Structure prediction request, 560 residues.
Amino acid sequence: MSVLVYINSNNGLYKSAFEAVTYGKKLGGDVTVITSGAADTKVLAGLGKYGAGKVLVDRSLQGDDDQQLTRIIANAVVSSGATTIIFSHDLTAKAVAPRLSVRLKAGLVSGAIEVPNGDGTIKVNVFSGKAFSSVKVNSASKIISLLPNSIQPEVSGSDCEVEEFNGNSGESKVKVLSTKKPEGEIPLPEAELVVSAGRGLKGPENWGMVEDLAKALGAATACSRPVADIGWRPHHEHVGQTGVAIRPNLYIAAGISGAIQHLAGVNGSKVMVVINTDAEAPFFKAADYGILGDAFEVLPRLTEAVKKFKSSGN
Amino acid sequence: MKILVCISKSPDTTSKIAFTDNNSKFDENGVQYIVNPYDEWYALVRALEIKESSGGNVTIITVGNANDEAVIRKALAIGADEAVRVDTDPTDAYYTAMQIAEYAKSNGFDLILAGKETINYNGSQVAGMIAEAMDLPFISLASKLDINGSTLTLEREIAGGLQVVDVNLPAVVSCAKGMAEQRIPNMRGIMAARTKPLNVIAPVAIENLTEFVAYTMPATKSACKMIDPNNMDELVELLHNEAKVI
Ligand SMILES: Cc1cc2nc3c(=O)[nH]c(=O)nc-3n(C[C@H](O)[C@H](O)[C@H](O)COP(=O)(O)OP(=O)(O)OC[C@H]3O[C@@H](n4cnc5c(N)ncnc54)[C@H](O)[C@@H]3O)c2cc1C
Prediction:
């Protein structure tokens, strides 16, 4: 069997790239990576450590046009003979994987959280994290889009060769007018630690406490839906059933009641901590650790405790 | 401007999620269906705003059986002009997308809108598949959409950032938060919806590429461990040594 992994390397490599290659390796067989853009050859060669046998890079394509990427990946499928194509379930995958599915007539499994079961079915998140389903693919080829933070990257080899590839990307019908690049912050869906706050924080002026704790931990920040709706925080921080679904190792929720729609987007977290003044808040039923107290006092105290812990060499 | 909006039903967000038939089927018992929030709040409302400012027609399309007509009427009550129902169960994203593409190909739409994903299967697949089947450009997860003549200007989220793009019509767009504000249908809309055209069309023969064969629920959590609010050192210690997450 031959596996092709698409990696978006436009802003350097995120951990999700290593996860996707590790996932490909776990399927068995040869793993080829396809990417485009200007990433450093040495950096790309490092994907070999996670199990890639070869990296194909189309340097003629700089952007992230979905039609062009689809053509390049489809050509890489032909040249590598791959029957399984892996994406990390990020914004690029959401645009490109469905196109590729139609082009190759390959069943697309989005939001995979595990390697395939013995019977070949693949476990995915459904109902916005309220349940799981096993998906069977009927077509000869398949595409799997892996939810970030579902498996750990594993080093199994050494640097691999990087080959220039002409994927015949063709024309773009989309003209990019401007791009606001991420400013070194961790994309929320990939963050391992997340500090989140809700309406209990009472106003945007109080978010310093949340950011301080996030900074001390090296965590990303998130919020509940009403907080984004009233404009206290940007929309991309809104987590939940109608926001971003995340599965970090640690989710700390301050002043969030834990409504079913909120929990739907975060209950894939490995560990959840709730800080709330109301002992009846539903979040206490979902959390692993609970603090019955005022976020205005608890957050700064927790930040101090984290700083103390970090400065003692951890 | 002819706009097609893809509408899916989804269980109300407070529905109890359960499964029947040996965990192979979603248990619809007592489940209230709504229009998938992303389709309704963002795709449909933005289509209506465009129609209100520059004229045109908004058609909604859903792939589903006769039980879905209540959800279709709701979308009509919000303001769509007419509805199309492809009379079949939407068994997988590819099957569903090919049904919609088949209809759209022969009906000359300028713009096809969909929500960014459904809240039951979360696949984010259908709109991109329609675009590929029709060889149209696809702008995914757009949070802003403006029209100037035959050019769309869109804002969309890209990994951790924001991009502004221009694309010529026809095009397919999946809509995310920021694009429009939810509208509540009024009495007049609800009355008008009853008599708006709802065309039921037969499906075309398409295979299913995938199948949801079995469902499971997440393991139940053990009880929440309460920590003294004055002792955050204890919490840090537990997160480090017990939970091993920091
Ligand atoms: C269709 C639909 C989709 C939805 N999707 C989402 C979604 O994706 N994400 C989402 O988050 N919500 C969603 N919601 C909204 C959801 O139902 C809740 O209304 C929302 O999550 C509540 O936000 P909150 O917890 O910040 O605010 P509230 O419910 O107002 O809770 C505030 C909490 O803060 C506590 N508190 C107050 N003061 C303090 C203090 N000083 N210290 C500590 N705690 C304090 C209170 O006890 C309370 O528990 C959706 C709703 C619907 C109908």
Chain B has one domain: 2-215. The first helix of chain B runs from residue 37 to 54. Chain B has six helices and 15 strands.
